[in-house]
Amino acid sequence: MSANSSRRSFLKSSALAGAACMLRSPALASSAGSSVIVVGAGAFGGWSALQLAHRGMRVTLVDAWGPGNSRASSGGETRTIRATYGPAHTLYVKMVARALQLWQEYQERWNLKLFFRSGALRMAGADDSYETAALPVLKEAGIRFERLSAAECARRWPQVNFDVFAPGPWLGSVFPFLRLGITPTRQEVFFFGTPAGETRYSEEQLPTWIDGGKHPFFGVPGNDWRGFKIADDTRVPVIDPSTMEREISQEKLSAARAYMRLRFPALSDAPLLESRVCQYENSTDHNFILDHHPEADNVWIVGGGSGHGFKHGPVMGEMLADAVLDSKEPPTEMGLGRLLRVTPS
Q: What is the pLDDT of residue 142?
């Protein structure tokens, strides 16, 4: 039997579910206690497994390298929760509002500190039309925000220089028809040491931040004293997440240090404490995927986190469980059709 025939037969005859895909029988929705296997223990797969278990299904969660592994898109210890998506993505703004509620509910339920409230700062360049257009959407979703000038930001966070502005990655391998629609890219993350006793760069005194522009950076303060986290959000180069070397490049480290000198001058000579090389799984339009397999109606494919998926994990779990149990259709924005129409340039 050919590899393609074997895969197709397996998908149509197995009970498979996951952050990458899910397979069920038509009777599953009305069968309490049915068994489901979730393949992929990242943010989407893990939360999907939890939601299905809450709804009475017998769930087995598996991952090629175990949960929270270094190859996963969501394998790091810290993530930001931001809600600024511009005017065209109201779906994700509403999902952020719901996700924040769920993160806090599970934190209380598990008696485990998951959410550290620091605020989120988005630094716009000379053209702030994207951020301005997002404000009505944030207000409609009930998300509190402030609009601050550079001078107001400088008074509130004097440790930041506001005077200048810096200009599930295996989906394409598991499902070849998505190879052109999903692009894994290499992302390097750095943790710099702050001076002993210095608290200005903790989450109590500095929000998480995103600095837009041609070469966007973002960062997370505090990190339980592991270091001041910054990362370049540029989506290059394209890589294979299974074989990529996880050693940082001198080019990216130099760029990170140059950015530190620009935006956080007091940390210009901060030592590098830790680093991590991870990846994004970018869909062509940066929307998520939640849809049936095009050749097997009982298979669900979930993914396309595109660098903003982790915070949405609890909501994606809800949406996945709703879809599998036929209680609610997934958002049309997450359909596979838009990606299957992609052709080589």
A: 92
CA nearest to 48, candidates 287, 310, 314, 312: 314
Q: Strand locations in the chain, DSSP E?
A: 16-18, 22-23, 35-39, 58-62, 120-123, 182-192, 208-211, 217-220, 228-232, 272-283, 289-293, 296-303
Q: Which of these, 66, 3, 17, lies nearest to 325 by C-alpha position? A: 17
pLDDT averaged per 10 residues in sequence order, the chain, 345 residues: 41 36 47 78 90 92 82 73 83 93 95 91 81 91 90 89 56 79 91 92 92 84 88 88 91 94 94 92 90 79 86 91 87 89 50
The predicted pLDDT at position 164 comes to 57
Q: What pLDDT sits at residue 316? A: 92
Helix (H) or strand (E) holding 43: helix 43-54
Among 264, 281, 298, residue at a domain's last position: 281
Q: Residues with Cβ < 8 Å from 262, sequence gap 6 or more?
A: 161, 164, 166
Q: Which two tokens stand for residue 47?
A: 């939360």
Tokens of 281: 């799984």
- Distance between CA atoms of residues 231 and 274, nearest Å: 12
* pLDDT tens figures, 97-120: 999 999 999 999 999 999 988 899
Q: Does 120 lie in the same domain as 156? A: yes
Give CA–CA dist 143/145, Å, rounded. 6
Q: How far apart are CA 47 and CA 98, in angstroms?
A: 14
d(Cα 286, Cα 291) in Å, to the nearest integer?
Answer: 15
Residue 202, in any domain of the structure: yes
pLDDT value, residue 33: 64
Distance separating alpha carbons of residues 191 and 275, to the nearest angstrom:
6
CATH of the domain at 327: 3.50.50.60
Distances (CA, A) of 247 to 2, 64, 191, 234, 276: 37, 21, 14, 18, 8
**pTM across the whole model:** 0.69
Residue 80 lies in a domain: no
CATH number, position 199: 3.30.9.10
Among residues 276, 258, 278, which one has the least CA distance to residue 268? 258
Structural domain of 252: 115-167+182-281
